[in-house]
Amino acid sequence: xxxxxxxxxxxxxxxxxxGTPALAGVAREQVKAELTEAIRTGDMPAPGNRxxxxxxxxxxxxxxxxxxxxxxREQVKAELAQAIRTGDMPAVGHRGLKLNELYPSxxxxxxxxxxxxPEQVKAELAEAIRTGDxxxxxxxxxxxxELHPEMHPAV
Length: 155
Fold this sequence. Notes:
The protein is mainly α. 45% of the residues lie in helices and 0% in strands.
């Protein structure tokens, strides 16, 4: 009974979310297929268990998750050696600073990305204004062309 309640709640929430611009392109069939897959695998919130999924609370009832292959030992060693060489490692006791940021003279200089010319910046700005591909002030995470599609031509 609790599983049916969770499934019903998920369906209702999906219906409410589907009206948002971010999910407007998602087909109803795709949402149903994703819900069916979530129910089959137990990848749904377990009622009364903060943050746990059904497959975590009842692992014997659902198929085991596929384990993604990790890095090999040699790859990890190579990444560590590269980080040590470039100083791209956290400095102990310096709240998120890396060694190459604290002691830049001890490590090779980072490559500088080529910057845009003023003309390129102006052209990109004009294109963003034309297509509405910019964040609207005062809106929560919305671009102008998403919030006001009638104001901008289809791209």
